[in-house]
Amino acid sequence: MPATAWQSAADPDPTSHPCGLARLLSVELEPFEKIVDRHGPTVLRVCCAVLGPAAAQDAWSETFLAALQAYPGLRPGSNVEAWLVTIAHRKAIDHARAQARHAIPASDLPEQPSRDGIPGAGDHDLWGAVKELPPKQRESVAYHYLAGLPYADVAGILGGTPEAARRAAADGIAALRQAYLSPHRAAEEEGKAR
Amino acid sequence: MMTQPQDLAAAELFGGLPEVGEEALSRLHARLAADADAAGILDVAYRTIDTPVGPLLLAATGKGLIRVAYATENHDRVLDQLATRVSPRVLRAPVRLDPAAREIEEYFAGRRTRFELPLDLRLSTGFRRLVLTQLPGIAYGTTASYAAMAVAAGSPRAVRAVGTACATNPLPVVVPCHRVVRSDGTLGNYVGGTAAKQALLTLEGAS
Questions:
Q1: Structural domain count, chain A
Q2: Of B42, B60, B135, B177, which residue is the catalytic one?
Q3: Are A33 and B79 inside 8 Å of each other by CB?
Q4: ipTM, 2 decimals?
């Protein structure tokens, strides 16, 4: 992963500034509490989209704990949202691997995982439809449309080009439209007709 | 950039998602604070408490209470200073402040005359710190003059410096700079304002 993934293009390395002046002028890191406050809800949605509502809380906790650990080393002025999504992405990969390792027979699964307080959890066929997407599409959709990252940042996290990320997101949205919006509309129409 | 058709579809797909629940977030926040503390990376924990002299911000490191701040000091600015001077790993984590909150509540209820809390004095250095370590020697219910404190600190002529040490006390209320008054009997300044100083001295029965 490129080390610059979470630095915005408009904010070049402050330490490379002539005379090192930028370092003196650079804004100090704000209290981590503000980061949790500002980005907590978005990261939870991203975790829901990428891992599903049941695993989202664990992934959120691991993401913010890892972020807190690394926070003092973050360059002031970095794009914090992209940095958090990068960490969440790694945690999601870890989770997916762990799930694959500890795969339990479907018959042992609880009927309904706890969706307590999870955004859009009642609307689980949307997350269900997102879950059916190929990983690259799912992640591109989550990082661009839910986290609001530009495709350049999405590509920085996933690898590949921004154009490929854009295509993956567009394909993902098209598939969701097909799988989720169309049946919903059809159901609504049917409801009206009755 | 032009709006792409998929952007509209995405807005339709995700625009209807409800807001993330406050309750779920506060549960996650509490879990983060506990995990961070267990992992030894909760460098600064804080909370606020309501008192008769207004809301007080309490902050503690692993070593002890590091900061008490009046609302007049601007709590957001105080947290920014802690992030800069101590560590940016700052989280609202009330549990670590439970003992301090309890003792301060007891103090304002008139049931406590001295604090027994571990303190982290790193925000104060040199002569100022020396003065702070002398302040708990002024008994509850009594006062001392700036001049007397200068003598106690071993620098009789450093009366102004004693004033500065009190004005920059990072632990007001707990380290009793409010018990230092002018030689002419008037109150003198106070980090929480003169009214707060008067209220504390009245509570203690010193005036």
A1: 1
A2: B177
A3: yes
A4: 0.92
